[in-house]
Write the structure tokens for this entry.
Amino acid sequence: MAKNPSGKKFHNEEISFNPFQELLATKTQHSKPVKEKEKSDSSDIQNPPNKCIDLLDDLFPAIQKIVLRIERKGRRGKTVTLLDISPVPSPDAFACLLKSLKKTLGCGASIADNSRIVFQGDQRERLEKWFTGQGSSRVIRG
């Protein structure tokens, strides 16, 4: 059995030596008290300012043509879906559209050349369903 510095053996009933006693004492001296978080008004939570919703609502009526196509060349055999929108929306609206589509489809995507969105994988069918559900009438699959 292990012995403590005083020479006594450890027993289940009597443990007189604790090597961490000094650490526990210093921790309680230097630890900061935990503050309770202030509760905010429920009105702020119910009505968050979300500019993306407004931008997307204005974007869909302005879209004239959406072209979906896949590409494999120059990507080490990986398939990507290219999304071209005509006319090209503002950068803020484009970023909001990208964020919304990434969240909806659950796939990676990025903006390329400031005029198209590149999705990982073949997402043509899912994108077509999403855009027709949003009210876009002219979706072309290429």
